[in-house]
Amino acid sequence: CAAMEYLYANGLFPELKLLIEKTEYATNKLVRKTSRIYQIMYDRKTLRAKQLKPDAPVKYIKAVNRLKINDDEYTLKILRDLVHIFCYFDMHQYGKIGTFNQSIKRDLLHVKDPLLYVLLESRLNETLFIYHWKRNELILSRKYGYQLLKDTNNPCKKIDIHNILAQGYLFESYDQAMYHVSIAMESARELQYERAMYGLKNFTLPFIAAYYKKTEGVTSEDQAEQAHIALAEHELDKCIRILESFEQLTPFQQYYLGRAKQDKYLLRTSYQRFIEERDDYFYARLPLEALNALDQ
Predict the structure, then answer these.
(1) pTM reported for the whole predicted model
(2) What distance in Å separates the CA atoms of residue 237 and residue 49, rounded to the nearest whole number?
(3) Which residue in 13, 43, 166, 221 has its CB near the most CB atoms, within 10 A?
(4) What is the predicted pLDDT for the residue at 56?
(5) Helix 264-276 with 251-261: angle, nearest 10 deg
């Protein structure tokens, strides 16, 4: 298990795939179950270049829940909980993450292998980094984020951490946010990490730029972010036209439309959806801020 976790943690996915294939029919039951969980993690990680989230997080949750894991198989329980956490993250259900964090903390105490303990603790810290960000507990979130940057040797993981740190500075500092975006983009370019490059260029960068109305030369392939850029550039008709062509709106898109139309109902709905559907107290600040500005 320590070998598989080491390969996973360091982003060595071709080697991990080989090890999974070697162990999937092992005579040892524990090894077989471990192999199966890493297969699920591997499947979730290997996405197309322009695909930012896995297709079917629910499928991975069901697959991992089908495994019979005993109460004393602490490492397997941790791995199962990690699959749950990252799938709920993919589904924007951030509130569910907290429960699993607690059980991982408990089960970690039973992990005897020192290398495995360090690797799994680092994965727990990764989930806490995201969890506290979404709870709008930014000092705690950054503490885990900067610790992870120090601890990890996986350059792809560092890009993901910088991406989240950048977003975490949205309400505080354009310069700090863009500092993390530029480090992430530089690394993604060097690594030719297409999926990260696509996400940073079309989502994170235009999103932060549009929030601060610093959109000169900034573009996005994503229609919703095109609407956000139009909003920042006071092209309200364009923003409204793009968003009203969508069949359904995310809480972000409702926020953009609410701002463009100065519509308090849309902004309130966006706020409620961030809280109720996503447990996202960080981004719920966007519609709240817009509502307060309208009340001035």
Answers:
(1) 0.92
(2) 32
(3) 166
(4) 81
(5) 160
